[in-house]
Amino acid sequence: xxxxxxxxxxxxxxxxxxxxxxxxxxxxxxxxxxxxxxxxxxxxxxxxxxxxxxxxxxxxxxxxxxxxxxxxxxxxxxxxxxxxxxxxxxxxxxxxxxxxxxxxxxxxxxxxxxxxxxxxxxxxxxxxxxxxxxxxxxxxxxxxxxxxxxxxxxxxxxxxxxxxxxxxxxxxxxxxxxxxxxxxxxxxxxxxxxxxxxxxxxxxxxxxxxxxxxxxxxxxxxxxxxxxxxxxxxxxxxxxxxxxxxxxxxxxxxxxxxxxxxxxxxxxxxxxxxxxxxxxxxxx
Length: 284
Ligand code: NDP
Hints:
Elements: E1 3-4, H1 7-29, E2 34-40, H2 44-60, E3 63-69, H3 75-87, E4 93-96, H4 106-112, H5 124-131, H6 140-151, E5 160-164, H7 171-180, E6 184-188, H8 195-200, E7 204-207, E8 225-228, E9 232-233, E10 239-240, H9 245-249, E11 254-255, H10 263-281
Parallel strand pairs: 1-11, 2-3, 2-4, 5-6, 5-7, 7-8, 8-11
Antiparallel strand pairs: 9-10
Helix pairs in contact: 1-10, 2-10, 6-7, 6-10
Bound molecules: NADPH dihydro-nicotinamide-adenine-dinucleotide phosphate.
């Protein structure tokens, strides 16, 4: 029987746990986690993401601040703001919403964020720590996927895990997290040969490709755990994942739906990172 992994429910649980933790941090230690989100320009999708992040923060008791900067903001102006927030004691986490306008060097800005406040987990220092298996702030989407995998109760040790996608925000950190749990990890991408065979070998499959229903049901190994990170529109304009859910669900032991799988976890883990950053800064 296939189990549908309910990301909405698990994310709600994470937020409830955080609410409790924040309440206790405030009462017992006088620590109030603070998240500053910077948005440059008018990208409509980014505006929605930023608004949702602010709302979710407030709901669990995180102090949130939003900085809306105009499209023509210079790199220097943005770096100055990041520097100011780096130095602010009431700011535990800083998030610069991507993509940035083309005249701003994204890498330079991300590297300017203090690693201890890098709640997206994109700073090379944190990426390096993830690579060596040291505790660190971890990129939110794969961090959320690990939580979903944990909810299955399946031990990942020794499992064949296949990650399709090698982006810096999903595929690569995902592979590192699975490796840390002793899975045998294969990373696939657009140049991978015999992709279908590799996917068929997966006891744990993570699809982070960005192509609607790319992974067909008969590519899925019997009993596999299937995690679908993809967020795409199907031929009718409806939100769908990278996996043909209906067919894949006939083979998988556990599978995430889209929507309602990985999506809700990303913001929940951002909040978790903010609380972790606040704890660390307070020496707790
Ligand atoms: P990117 O476009 O950065 O990366 C996509 C990856 O898929 C690349 O590594 C690419 O390979 C690989 N790929 C593309 N086509 C193929 C193919 N035909 N065969 C094998 N591999 C292929 O995307 P992201 O990692 O940022 O995101 C992936 C998906 O996850 C998107 O749908 C995105 O919207 C979604 N997403 C969802 C989030 C959530 O919160 N639920 C958060 C972040 C992303 P190559 O490197 O060779 O080009």
